[in-house]
Each structure stands twice: as structure tokens, then as C-alpha cells.
Amino acid sequence: AALNEAKLIFNTHKKTNQFLTDISYLISERINFYKDQLLSSLEKTALSNDPKDFLIQCLLRYCPPLLKPQWTKAVLVMPDLHKKAIIACYIAARLVYSRGLSWSPTLEDILPTLREDPHL
Known about the structure:
Strand content: under 5%
Helix content: 55-70%
Number of strands: 0
Distance between the termini: 12 Å
Oligomer: single chain
Shape: globular
Mean pLDDT: 88
Structural class: mainly alpha
Low-confidence stretches: none
Order of helices and strands: HHHHHH
């Protein structure tokens, strides 16, 4: 994630000549915006514990690879509220890092297509 953020910061700086700190702030703002939209849309969603489910795959991708084999079962039994928060943060960050700051549809417009996104 840090490498993706650094790439986005420097690529945006090259295009806009904005201060790096301002770009970092905009990235955080955009990630939080999408995270909030995702959390709102997941509010009434019941999560499965099937590792093949798209949302659970996002949750497991958030785990560092070194910890994944040991902690997969523990992650799957944590409360849905925590799972949804991690999933929303993961998807929001991946969208912003892969699409950039100029990309700005609402999540309602793109939620149906997220499952096919190769960047997630």
C-alpha cells in the first residue's frame, strides 16, 4: 500500500506540481470518502465466511501474506462490523491507488462492476 501511495503522490505531483503533503491529504480524503460509501452500502449486508466470496477475498487480501496462513480462521470469525470496516478500507484504498485522484464516480455507479475489477 505504501508503494502504491508513493507512486500516486509522485505521479500526481508530476502532473499538477502540487505540494506532496497536499496530494497526500487529497488521497486520504478520497479513500475516506469511498470507505464511508462502502460501509454505508455494506451496512445491511450479511457476510459469508466462504473464502471464495468476493468480499471475504478482499478481507483476506488485506492480511499480510506472512500472517494469512496462521490467521485466516481467526479473521473469518471476527465480528462482521470489523470485517466490513477492513473490507471497505481495502477496496477504497485499492480504487484510489489504481484509478487515481481524477477518477470520481459514486460507488453506487460502480458497485455492480467491482467483482470484475482486476485491481481488487
